[in-house]
Description:
The first copy, chain A, has six helices and three strands, in the order αααβααββα.
Amino acid sequence: MTEQHLDDFEGVKAALPDDEMLYDLAELYKIFGDTTRIKLLYILFEGEMCVQHMAELLSVSQSAVSHQLRILKGSRLVRYRREGKTVYYSLADDHVRQIIECGTEHINE
Amino acid sequence: MTEQHLDDFEGVKAALPDDEMLYDLAELYKIFGDTTRIKLLYILFEGEMCVQHMAELLSVSQSAVSHQLRILKGSRLVRYRREGKTVYYSLADDHVRQIIECGTEHINE
DNA sequence: TGAACATATGAACAGTTATTCATATGTTGC
DNA sequence: GCAACATATGAATAACTGTTCATATGTTCA
Lengths: 109, 109
């Protein structure tokens, strides 16, 4: 006996979000798909921190951290404020936390 | 006046999940960070579908779809059942939906 | 202004990844 | 067994990505 499967191509096609949104969504997840960036975000869960300290804490070069923060900034996942020579980064909002919690649930299934 | 920022390296370090979990988490998000895979998952939101139909629907080669399904299978995000020559894929559980909804919220902020 | 420091950025390189092509595996019906 | 079909898979290639190195920008203080 045959189970039900999708034959209505047009119906399914219509249910798909538009390409732009699918692209944006993939771009967002791509950002979480790197351990350095994930670590940076986890650090910022604890509060704000300057670039050099993040670099030291993760044993990564200052340049690498800066490059990654640029990406996080570009996606509006983090904010920053300058205080003299130092720049402190922090989470932009609570979305990051939610997204990471979502993924963590699957991992710890 | 100085705002509060993190100085307690050891404290923050202790708050970080272990490397293995951070790695797994990044690997999971990496999977969602590709438009073809996101589209496949969205299709499966509607129900189960065979490989060739997915390929046609997305205008991607059968081989490409199969390769991507392999990755999705590997992360236990999709299931499959064989019916004769045909293999039908479907979502493994509701985690996928939750994770994607989480990301969508940030996009539509 | 100039030295010292913190961060940002461009170019180059190495490693990774998605697709394609060719082909193998697996299933059905003759 | 064999032809036809559906799917899976390995190798090769092109595109993308993260890090490093060198250097630029920006800030402070003397």
